[in-house]
UniProtKB/TrEMBL annotation:
Belongs to the nucleotide-sugar transporter family. CMP-Sialate:CMP antiporter (TC 2.A.7.12) subfamily. It comes from the Eukaryota. PANTHER family: NUCLEOTIDE-SUGAR TRANSMEMBRANE TRANSPORTER (PTHR10231). This is Nucleotide-sugar transporter. Keywords: Membrane, Transmembrane, Transmembrane helix. One of its GO terms (cellular component) is Golgi membrane. SUPFAM superfamilies: Multidrug resistance efflux transporter EmrE (SSF103481). It is a multi-pass membrane protein. The chain crosses the membrane at residues 51-70, 119-136, 145-164, 176-198, 210-229, 249-270, 277-293, 299-317. It comes from Corchorus olitorius. It is found in: Membrane. One of its GO terms (molecular function) is pyrimidine nucleotide-sugar transmembrane transporter activity. InterPro entries: EmrE-like (IPR037185), Nuc_sug_transpt (IPR007271).
């Protein structure tokens, strides 16, 4: 039992003493995460088939991860240690979930403004907390529970604000709800489930961040390819071609998204969840700033009301983890 206590102290120490490399990864992830919605809307045409962009993105993740594994020498060990059963056990289900999540996010990108998308996407912390408790039995402190309620309030504000603002500007409220708000919230639920499953795999199976990226990208791509025959995207690919609507600029958001996936694993493994939380908060501010600078649209009143709630809830959730009582441990 004594071994469980140092884990919390180790995490707090790692969040306090950041190496230059971790600072670099954190800054890059902040910029990527905050800019991704704007990059996708600007460089991805509406005609682009979602499945094609997701598959190319997963392929780019595999290439990046394999290059990094070859660079740090872990690629050679795979031939002796890797097994198909172990790979499917650790990465199969999370990969299928993430593949569906990515498709939903691609749909949502096109129907929500960038800041609203980024803030609604943060509700995945609520579902991550739920599934982490359900699967790994990790409890939440009172402050964390309060932070989750703040985040729910922010999500409600954003849902109301997004529907009313776009309806008044001539948009279709039903399209905004069912093709913007609902997909990103469902993607958040799936993200929470997959995150808990990945944490279980890393603790039990001891998979590295790069290996998990490769396995999950391959399995997720296979799941998407299997669904193409009966999906609307599959019909569109057969009719118009795989790269319908693509331009050379379409590769920019695809590659950026792939690099972001690599950075998420690196920041989480090297700095822990506390640092990742600060990255998420900073990314919200980056999104707001970029949207104002490049699109000339100041945030709506609902976004302004929700922004401090999101920032406060994520900060409180990361700052006050559940601490097990020493008396209970001794008993």
């Amino acid at each position: 039992m004594a071994a469980t206590k140092p884990k919390a102290s180790t995490q707090s120490q790692s969040s306090g003493n950041m190496s230059p490399r971790v600072w670099l990864y954190s800054i890059l992830l902040t910029l990527q995460y905050g800019a991704q919605p704007l990059i996708s809307k600007r460089f991805t045409r509406r005609e682009v088939i979602v499945t094609s962009s997701v598959l190319i993105c997963e392929g780019a993740k595999v290439v990046c991860a394999l290059i990094l594994m070859a660079k740090d020498g872990t690629l050679k060990k795979l031939a002796k240690e890797w097994t198909l059963v172990g790979s499917l056990t650790a990465s199969g289900l999370p990969a299928a979930i993430y593949a569906l999540q990515n498709s939903l996010l691609q749909i949502s990108y096109r129907n929500l403004d960038s800041l609203t998308f980024s803030m609604l996407n943060q509700t995945k912390i609520i579902f991550t907390a739920f599934f982490t408790y359900f699967i790994l039995r990790q409890k939440q402190s009172i402050q964390q529970i309060g932070a989750l309620f703040l985040l729910i309030m922010a999500a409600v504000l954003l849902s109301v604000g997004e529907g009313s603002s776009k309806a008044s500007s001539g948009g279709d409220p039903e399209q905004i709800l069912f093709y913007g708000i609902v997909p990103v919230l469902v993607a958040s639920v799936l993200s929470g489930l997959a995150s808990a499953l990945c944490q279980w795999a890393s603790q039990v199976k001891k998979h590295s961040s790069y290996l998990m990226t490769v396995e999950m990208s391959i399995v997720g791509s296979l799941c998407l390819l299997a669904s193409i025959s009966k999906s609307p995207d599959g019909e569109a690919i057969r009719r118009h071609g795989f790269f319908y609507g693509w331009t050379p600029l379409t590769l920019i958001p695809v590659v950026a998204n792939a690099l972001g996936g690599i950075l998420v694993g690196l920041v989480t493994s090297l700095a822990g969840g506390v640092r990742k939380g600060f990255v998420i908060v900073s990314a919200l501010l980056v999104t707001a700033m970029l949207q104002f600078l490049f699109e000339g649209k100041p945030p709506s009143i609902y976004c302004l009301m929700a922004l401090p709630l999101v920032i406060s809830s994520i900060s409180i959730y990361q700052k006050y983890p559940y601490r097990y009582s020493t008396k209970k441990k001794e008993a």
